[in-house]
Amino acid sequence: MNLSSPLPLQATDAAPDWARVRVDFPLLMREVHGKPLVYFDNANTAQKPLPVIEATSAFYRRHNANVSRAVHALGTEATDAYEGARGKLARFLGVRADELVLCSGTTFAINLVAYSWALPRLKAGDVILVSRMEHHANIVPWQLVAQRTGATIRVAEIAPDGTLDLDALHAAMTPEVKLLAVAHVSNVLGTINPVREICREARRRGIVTVVDGSQAAPHLPLDVAAIGCDFYAVTGHKMCGPTGTGALWARREHLQAMPPFLGGGEMIKEVSFDGTVFNDPPHKFEAGTPNIAGFVGLGVAVDYLDALGREHIAAREQELLAHFTEELRRVDGVRIFGTAAHKAAVVSFQVEGAHSHDMATLLDLQGVAVRSGQHCAHPLLQYFGVAATCRASLAFYNTHEEIEAFMAALKKVRALLG
Ligand code: PMP
Fold first, then answer.
1. Which CATH code is given to the segment(s) 310-417?
2. Ligand 1 centre from 135 Cα, in Å?
């Protein structure tokens, strides 16, 4: 069975030929409204390279069967492919495969922590500390837990440049705080939070940490074990993998102590009407048929990112970010949200006198895809006192020419709206 990439991908010390890499992404070749597509919505979801598309399709064409439920050849192939993907993702994250729960994405991963770890443990008087810059997926599950346990939510504030106020954060880690939820990289501001330092301070005080790695895993060299957190969540569709794939890494002692979240097939060893013996982690948390083809694709996606080299990806995106930011600053009436020294290639902005939705709609007519709105981060936009922003988020396969095309489109749209 060959579910690996059909293209030769070798990790190399030299930076990849980015023009050659771009050709791997068929969707980037299409037009929108008769204009060449400029896809700057990568923080929302990333495009998929051919090896990922091919591997997903090859699974359905040649190997499709359910996992762990059949002894026939296809069943074994499907199980091997699924478990192989777990191994690849574990290596990519720098963790043990038996500590990695595969699930549909970050939203599921954080809810798993909320329902299996937090709900049975927290009580009135306890505090859940969350940062101001969290995505709703790292706020709402904690609110649901707080409602049911009597715990309260405390907010760690940010500074106007979009960095976390670390002194305030550490001061907020009082004895009542049982759990801290923080993004590794903000999906709105691009800020890269010093999660290692934050988790060290939390651990010293006995606070359990949940790091939302959705926007970090696709863009930064990553060693999750070295961060020192308790839980780390990732989502496959932002990592050039299929939608409906993701994972939760957790320390072994947590996985062993946590009750299952969902019950059903796969997560059991033995069932009778007198009771059930659950499977070992991570299978204990994987009830039902998973997105097998999706995980096969995700395994190939992480191999693809590794073959490009994550240092190279980060350097390429920093170069694109610097170019984009410099050009955008030159446009009259632009306000940028998030100017941290350490940030990923995510730029939220507003143009004076233009509503963000109008901007995004008119940019779309020029072939440019950006997101507009609140980016699933209402409390963050409330801090800045705005109802919506436009967000351009770049990936390694974007080009300097696309940045020029974006700026030309922006100036045109601005003139139309002005
Ligand atoms: N957290 C962050 C920081 C995100 O950017 C996103 C996706 N927009 C999520 C969580 C939600 O992840 P998923 O798409 O896997 O539900």
1. 3.90.1150.10
2. 7
pLDDT in tens, 358-404: 999 999 999 999 999 999 999 999 999 999 999 999 999 999 999 99
Distance from residue 233's CA to the centre of ligand 1 (Å) = 9
Nearest-CA residue for atom 8 of ligand 1: 44
Q: Is 376 a catalytic residue?
A: yes
Indicate the domain borders of the chain: 54-306, 310-417
- Ligand 1, residues at Cβ distance < 6 Å: 105-107, 135, 137-138, 183, 187, 212, 214-215, 235, 246, 376
> Are both 54-306 and 310-417 of the same fold?
no
Q: What stretch of H or E contains 334?
A: strand 334-337
Topology of domain 54-306, per CATH? Answer: Aspartate Aminotransferase; domain 2 (3.40.640)
Whole-model pTM above 0.85?
yes
